[in-house]
Amino acid sequence: MVQVNRTSQRKKRERNYVGLMVAIIVIVALIDQAVKQLMLNWLEPGQAVAVIGDWFRFYLLFNPGAAFSMGQDSTWLFTTIQLVFVVGALIAAFFIRQPWYAVGIALIAGGALGNLCDRLFREPGFWFGHVVDYISVGNFAVFNLADASITIGVVVFVIAVFLDDSDKAEKQDAQEVKDGEAQ
Predict the structure, then answer these.
(1) Is the pLDDT of residue 76 over 70?
(2) pTM
(3) What is the largest CA-CA distance in the chain?
């Protein structure tokens, strides 16, 4: 009986993380859009405002492509990929049982949703909109909060993969049940 209780306790802990993921996705996208609107109201396109010398600046530009402005003629493709990822993440939320996987995927999806909003609703038009970028660090490409969220999400997800011991825990549970049946 003790073995069954231990297993049922583990199952309770291994719930899905739909609420957590939706909250992270929505919060990241809303903050991203709010900061973009603030930057649009404050800066002119191409205008740079030094925050920490030339190392950290706010610099407003519009990016039709992906990271580092690659694929500028493929805006429709990036829009489609982001939409598929956000929908896929919401579906996956019902099946994810590890909290750090949920956080990583939600950060990626929240960033994708933030940039997707730009691609859907900003100039030059629906599905082909340009992403608002405004963070300039050193000589690195100009990016935004959504991009940072995607990067952090990937790092969290990769770390979660390397630290995942769920197979070990499942094997331990199975062995405990087996040992309990043998007694």
Answers:
(1) yes
(2) 0.83
(3) 75
What DSSP element (H or E) covers 175?
A: helix 166-182
Describe the strand order of the beta sheet including 131-137 as a list of residue ranges.
Answer: 48-52, 56-63, 131-137
Over the range 166-179, which residues count as b (16 or more CB within 10 Å of their CB) and which as e? eeeeeeeeeeeeee
Assess contact for 167 and 156: CB atoms under 8 A: no
The residues annotated as belonging to the active site are: 133, 147
pLDDT tens by residue, 147-181: 999 999 999 999 999 998 776 656 666 666 666 66
* Assigned token pair, 54: 């030339």
Cα–Cα dist 132/144, whole Å: 7
> What Rg, from alpha-carbon coordinates, does the chain have?
21
Q: What is the DSSP code string of 5-51?
A: HHHHHHHHHT---HHHHHHHHHHHHHHHHHHHHHHHHH--TT-EEEE
Amino acid at 183: Q
d(CA 161, CA 183): 36
Alpha-carbon span 88 to 180, nearest angstrom: 40
> Could you read off the pLDDT of 106-123 as tens digits, one per residue?
999 999 999 999 999 999
CA distance 34 to 40: 10
* Residue 143 DSSP symbol: B
How far is the C-alpha of 108 from the C-alpha of 113, rounded, in Å? 9
